[in-house]
């Protein structure tokens, strides 16, 4: 009676299947971390944009808010997905709002994306 040593084809197939499932899990984690880092980047950009406008308005005496708002929204739309800012109130009690669409998928035309707003 002969004894066979080594691995069988079934054992190799099962090992490859387990390895492939583990690699798919690692890829899923990487995709989720990319999405989260993209949203964190947009939040950092929005905070910076809000700070810039807040500082401009704080230092200005007589301001043409329409021109500043148009220029600011041009910057917002270039740096944030569907970025739009609003300034309400009268000097010195102004409220600055900046809204943009959070990206859950990597496409810009995503109906499941949520709108996020910051206020100052």
TrEMBL record:
Membrane-crossing ranges are 12-32
Keyword list (alphabetical) reads: Membrane, Transmembrane, Transmembrane helix
Superkingdom: Bacteria
Record-given protein name: Type IV pilus modification protein PilV
């Amino acid at each position: 009676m002969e004894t066979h040593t080594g691995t069988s084809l079934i054992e190799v197939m099962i090992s490859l299947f387990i390895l492939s499932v583990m690699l798919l899990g690692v890829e899923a984690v990487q995709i989720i971390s990319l999405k989260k880092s993209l949203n964190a980047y947009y939040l950092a950009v929005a905070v910076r944009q809000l700070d810039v406008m807040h500082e401009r308005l704080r230092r200005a005496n007589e301001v043409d808010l329409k021109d500043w708002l148009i220029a600011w929204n041009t910057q917002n739309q270039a740096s944030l997905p569907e970025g739009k800012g609003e300034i309400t109130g009268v000097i010195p009690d102004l409220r600055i709002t900046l809204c943009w669409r959070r990206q859950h998928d990597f496409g810009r035309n995503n109906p499941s994306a949520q709108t996020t707003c910051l206020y100052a």
